[in-house]
Amino acid sequence: MKFGELLGVVALGIILLSLAIAIAGPGTKLGNIWSSLSNRAGTTIHQSQAPASGDSIQGGPSLSGDYINRVLQSANSPANGTGQALHDLSTQYNIDDAYALAVFMHESSYGKYGAANEDHALGNIVCAGYPTCNGRFRSYPTWADGYADFYQLLTREYIPRGLTTVETITPVYAPASENDPNGYIASVRQIMAVYRQESAA
Fold first, then answer.
1. Domain extents for the chain?
2. Which CATH number fits domain 49-200: 1.10.260.40, 1.10.287.40, 1.20.1250.20, 1.10.530.10?
3. What distance lies between CA 161 and its chain's CA centroid?
4. % of the chain beyond a pLDDT of 70
């Protein structure tokens, strides 16, 4: 085989592997294997920003997949083992995983209670034309799919409107007609601070 042909075969192999990983998605066996290999090789899959800080949700993840898994395991969450998916999606969307995990805790104690348990939902997002719903709320086949939709919702409908902090997002995400926004804000802020402190220790 000529050198040029060999390069073509290698390039095709890389394209096919990348396509398979993209289809598999974060949190799957293939995605986790690729993430592990890339980290060992010193390769960055996504170009992430500096970790978020303060009240902002924007920035790279401030937690690790291992830390998230420990939190989920300690809470006996049905989502135990999906920490790497939550972390990888945080890197992809540049939204802090500490915020996502805090909302998960506040909404359903990490998927243990309410509609989230059956729907694999990080937050109880109103159906609003979503293709798969269970009653009033969106439903997902896996926890990773629920995580992805949460990050996508923030990316599409909140951040473009300048809603990038816990204080500005919460009254829209959890309106006063159904929630206590001030209590929600205080709870999420406190939980995020604990996560960040423990993860940095």
1. 1-45, 49-200
2. 1.10.530.10
3. 20
4. 75
